[in-house]
Amino acid sequence: MKVIGIHASPRKGANTATLVEKVLKGAADKGAETKLVELRKLDMKPCIGCDKCKENLGHCVQKDDLTPLMEEMATYDAIVLGTPIYWFHATAQFKTLVDRLYCYYGFEIDPETNDYKEILAFPPGKKVVFVTSRGDPEDKKDYDVFYNSLNDWLQVVGMALLASSMEFVHHYGSWNEKDAALKDADLVARAESVGASLA
Q1: Which residues pair with 109 in a beta bridge?
Q2: Pick from 104, 101, 91, 94: which is nearest to 134 by CA?
Q3: CATH code of the domain containing 162
Q4: What is the pLDDT of residues 28-72, one digit of tens each?
Q5: What residues pair up with 105 in beta bridges, in sequence order?
Q6: N-term to C-term CA, the chain
Q7: DSSP string over 57-104
Q8: What's the burial of 112, exposed, middle or buried (CB within 10 Å: 0-12/13-18/19+)?
Q9: 19 and 169 in contact (C-beta within 8 Å)?
Q10: Angle at Cα 194 formed by Cα 188 and Cα 196, nearest 5°?
């Protein structure tokens, strides 16, 4: 079992990073091979909409750190994705990764009906864990757009076609306390438990 954890926090050692690391720890304790990637450390370019990937689905032509990372992601059995929520949505670093994974999505047009047929080049069957951290409390209801877009994206890429194949670890009320998640023993235990379930 191979598990990759990717977090999109622009801050070192903050809550999202802590929880992704704890999920990986839970998996490693059960014998999984794990790897942590911090997007803030990578040279990343935004999608330029060239559509060259449609000629060779699953392969982005850009020369930066994201291109080999995306290809590596496809080789793992489970993927842990983490982002803080800033301004009611994912960070710019996470959105850059999401946009670039467009290279795994294609379509064909039926010449008789003109209907679109989706082609998903990302290998199916991955287990997915999603980690979020936000300042607002759990009962604040301004985040539906983010969660709906996340669900749509995961389905289009083909990572999680069934809700049952995806786990969430949510952290609420952190504001600027970078160690708030680490101080929450129940949350840390849940993150490690979710990680153990991957293995």
Answers
A1: 116
A2: 91
A3: 3.40.50.360
A4: 999 999 999 999 999 999 999 999 999 999 999 999 999 999 999
A5: 120
A6: 6
A7: TT-----SSHHHHHHHHTT-SEEEEEEEEETTEE-HHHHHHHHHGGGG
A8: exposed
A9: yes
A10: 105
Measure Cα distances from 20 to 4, 14, 80, 103, 130 in Å.
Answer: 10, 10, 7, 25, 9
* Token pair belonging to 29: 């304790």
Domain that holds residue 184: 2-198
- List the structure tokens of 21: 């690391």
Render pLDDT for 86-116 as a digit per residue (tens, 0 to 9): 888 899 999 999 999 999 988 888 888 888 8
**In the chain, how many domains are there?**
1
Share of the chain above pLDDT 90, in %: 62
Q: Which range is least confidently modeled, 74-78, 143-147, 160-164?
A: 160-164
pTM check: above 0.70: yes
